[in-house]
Design goal:
The protein is α+β, with helices and mostly antiparallel strands. It has helices at residues 18-32, 35-38, 45-51, 103-107, 112-128, 130-140, 170-186, 189-193, 203-215, 219-228, and strands at 55-59, 67-72, 76-83, 88-94, 98-102, 149-152.
């Protein structure tokens, strides 16, 4: 899979702008599935994850779905998961380069859009943050450190700033990058431009509806993505 060349801050976090993430996401899609860029359609995230050389699993990550996904970059015997039968946490063994999605997302069709965005988010971590988390694990010096990142249940935020308008810092910046790249992979800008919609008094609602149907995403994800591209007010 194509590498994303970027500078890093003092903590080893990639310094990736929105434009860089847009270009990198579309380069990946051009290699993996160029048809997605020409004809608006759902991205095959399962296929993309396999193409990346990652494994994909489903586990119950918590008792209340506070975590929707985790990307594991190093072999570990100590990844905590939730056992709903025994109502307790347990540790499992996981191989490096594994993406784990909260099991309840696959069990309920109502969570399909959330599952797809979570898959895109975890794939984004695998594409641009592997080196950071491997270095973090080595620096920590723990042989059982998973070198992974848990993704919490939250609304996709593509602004990249906090409530005061300052750029996000630390791992919050990594989460923003993963959210933004996930949005690019699910709803590439080139494909959005190819959506044919009528400009009438309710054009923005029509465009959101077409985005949902074309890319198999939620209305919220479509609205946030359109706002980030300037189609809608932020």
């Amino acid at each position: 899979m194509v590498k994303c060349a970027s500078k890093m801050d003092s903590n080893g976090i990639p310094l990736l702008s929105k434009n860089q993430l847009e270009r990198h996401g579309e380069k990946i899609l051009h290699i993996f599935s160029p048809a997605v860029l020409v004809n608006p359609q759902p991205t095959d995230l399962d296929g993309l994850i396999r193409e990346m050389g990652f494994n994909q699993e489903y586990q119950y990550l918590s008792h209340n779905k506070v975590y929707l996904g985790v990307t594991v970059f190093n072999d570990t015997d100590m990844l905590p998961v939730y056992n709903p039968i025994l109502n307790r946490a347990e540790f499992i063994s996981v191989k490096k380069n594994t993406i784990i999605i909260e099991g309840t997302l696959a069990e309920n069709p109502a969570y399909e859009h959330r599952e797809r965005f979570t898959l895109g988010h975890e794939a984004a971590h695998g594409l641009i943050h592997a080196e950071y988390y491997r270095r973090k694990a080595e620096f920590a010096g723990f042989c059982d450190n998973s070198g992974g990142i848990y993704s919490k249940s939250c609304a996709p935020d593509l602004s990249g700033v906090d409530a005061s308008g300052k750029r996000l810092q630390g791992e919050a910046w990594l989460e923003w990058q993963a959210n933004y790249l996930a949005a690019v992979l699910l709803m590439p800008k080139t494909a959005i431009k190819n959506i044919d919609f009528k400009c009438n008094g309710r054009w923005h609602l029509e465009l959101i509806s077409m985005m949902v149907e074309a890319f198999n995403v939620s209305e919220q994800a479509a609205r946030v993505r359109l706002a980030s591209l300037g189609y809608l007010p932020t």
